[in-house]
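Please, structure for the following, as tokens.
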Amino acid sequence: MSKPLIGLLLGAFLGLLDGISSFFYPDVRAQMMLIITFSTIKGLITGLIAGIVARKWNSLPLGIATGLIVGLFLAYLVSPPPDSSGSNYYAEIMLPGSILGVIVGFATQRLGKNSPAKAQ
């Protein structure tokens, strides 16, 4: 299995788990489908980018850093800013996004195989 495909599959799975975990917050249950959809998309994008980086460069630190940065960036794009009204989901979105990125970045560097070089 190729590294980008591993990234896509693992990212989608972890994103789905991240989205489903929002069930534990009763005040967002009305938005469950939206949260699950966007969490899965975030995981797919993070996994694809981490897989492409893993295919091009064989560097564990680079893979983890790429996953972390992409995961954090995508989580930042969908997280509401912290406010003083008491409903602060900023950390609850940013932390799983970064953890997803680190796991996917690590896995794409360690698992899968690079496609063979094409003859020119």
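Helices lie at 3-20, 32-56, 60-78, 90-110. Residues 3-81+88-110 form one domain.
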